[in-house]
Each structure stands twice: as structure tokens, then as C-alpha cells.
Amino acid sequence: MPAVTSIRCNAPWKKKNRPVIGDRLPLALDAVTLPGAGTLAVLHPDADADLSALPRDRVRVVSPMATVCAAFAARGYDTAAALDPDVRVAASILCLTRARAEAQALVAAAMACTDVLVIIDGQKTDGADSMLKAMRQRTQMGGPISKAHGKVYWTEPSAAFADWAAGPQLQPGGFWTAPGVFSADGVDPASALLVAALPETMVGTVADLGAGWGYLSAHVLDRGADAVHLVEAHDMALQCARHNVTDPRAQFHWADATQWKPPAPVDAVVMNPPFHKSRSAEPGLGQAFIANAARVLRPHGALWMVANRHLPYEDTLTANFAKVVELDGDARFKLVRAERPKRIRR
Questions:
Q1: Cβ–Cβ < 8 Å for 59, 52
Q2: Which domain holds residue 297?
Q3: Minimal CA–CA distance to 48: which of 85, 83, 74, 9?
Q4: Cα separation of 199 and 328, whole Å?
Q5: How far apart are CA 303 and CA 297, in angstroms?
Q6: pTM for the whole structure
Q7: What is the DSSP letter of 48?
Q8: Residue 2 lies in a domain
């Protein structure tokens, strides 16, 4: 186990309303000794996570989310989409994700490339207790320390977690997905509904905003589009999309779909926009997708979109498009075709 000696971090971390890793991480750093040199990898933090307890010049923030990496890069941090298995780090601080298989894969990746210390931080609602129990069955653990409805604990790197490793895999349905990717277990029914509503022939250049593992884009290409831009903020999802969409007409962009700009305006946009950043619905995310769809389209372009029925997108659609038509959806999902984007000055 890492030595239980005190390390003092001169950081003003005792403040209210900080992200929870900022509450618990300094407590862990009072119980263990950080390596004196080498990279400190912080895996999958929230974009606003407080890392001030760590020396900034040694931290590498690792997140599959382009939005998270951009936020930390703007604050002066080194960032990466994933751990490089050929590059060693001195210590890893791992923020648990809600998806159990993804969290286990993250633990395996950290164990494989870390030299001295692995710290695990997570909310109880994200499985902090069950992860601690599972890890104790394989190795000795330090802690836990409980605070702010979560726990932090630590251990030395161990090869005992190699079987938890996971990445893109071919599924029985013939498509590639990975833990943590949206709709990893099968085709999302909303996306399937949208595909059935798309015209039999699609021409010109199409943007798939929030492309995920590429289901919509594959069908758009089958309908004859000249080119398709797959825009996806989640790096692992985009890796899966590269397996699923091998057509040379496809172009892949690791980017925030609400801010992405094409090299030239596109003829159509297809999308099944996300509406969660946390456990509760955040319709502002889908509304931002709609606004950017209007920005990237040609003057006579069209948006094809599917969304859950309860999401309040109508005002945003009518504010951004001259014509909005609701197509035949079902009890759960609404289908929309919006035409002629308005050029709203922003």
C-alpha cells in the first residue's frame, strides 16, 4: 500500500459549492503520499471539477469528452482524450462514471499505465460503494474517506484488474460499441424511428450532430449523400463510429456539436440530440443543438430530428427555422423536419 504519511497541499479547498472531487481529494492527499515527480492523470472529471489540490504543471486531464477537455485546456491544463497505454503516469485520480462497465474499464486502464498510486473518487449514486467492494475482492484498498455523499479510496497499481479492460467491440447486431457509449446495447429506438422517416434519397452534404456510434450516418450514406460529417463529443463513441462507418464519404469530428462549424454550409442535418448531462433532463442541451443546426445549414437546408415528446423544443425550432413540420412519430418520440434556417444575429 502507498505510505500513509502526510502531504500538505497549499490550496484553498475548504469552500462551499465546489464540485465534490474538490471536497474529497484533499482528504485523500492528507492520507497518502503523492509521487514527487511524474504525471498525475485525472480521469473523467466533470468540466467544472476543482483540481486545485494538485500541482497544475503535473496534471493531465483525461476525458473522452471534447467539451471537458476544452474547458480544462482553457484553464491551462494538459488534456488528452484517453490514456496512452504506452505512456506511464506516476499516479491516477479516477472519477467514477455511472456506467459500471465503463468504470471498470477505466480502472483497468489506470492500473495498466500507473506506476505508484491509483485514487478512486465517486458519488454513492455512481456506484462508489459497489466499486470499493469489487476492488477489495482483488487487492488491498486504503480508505475509504466519506464526504459529500461520496467516497474516495486508493490502492497500488495491480494486474488483477486486467480482465476489466474493454474497448470497441463488435456486437451481435453487426455494429461496434463500447462501455459508456450511448445505446451501447442496441439500436436506439428514437434513432430507428428517425431513419424510417428520412427520405429514400438524400443528396449533398449532411451533418450528423451528436453522431454517437454512427447509426444515423450509415443510413444517410446508404441513401446517396455526397458526404457526411459525423460530429461527436465522446471520443470512444467516435472510435466506434469509425468501425461502423467505413465509407470514404464520411468525415469524423471530435467536437462539441453545439459549437462545431463545417468547412462550408451543409444541405441537411440529422440528429437525435442528447438531453442529459446529469441525472435530470436538461433541455437546453438539445436547444443548443437546434440552434447550431440552423447555423450550419444552407439557406434552403433542412433539419431532420427526433426527440422525446416531453422536451420543450418547439419555441427554439420556430425561432430558428421558417418552417417546422411535425412528422408521424409515436407515443414516446416526436419527429420534426425544419426548413429554411433563419439567420439570427448572435
A1: no
A2: 169-341
A3: 74
A4: 14
A5: 8
A6: 0.89
A7: T
A8: no
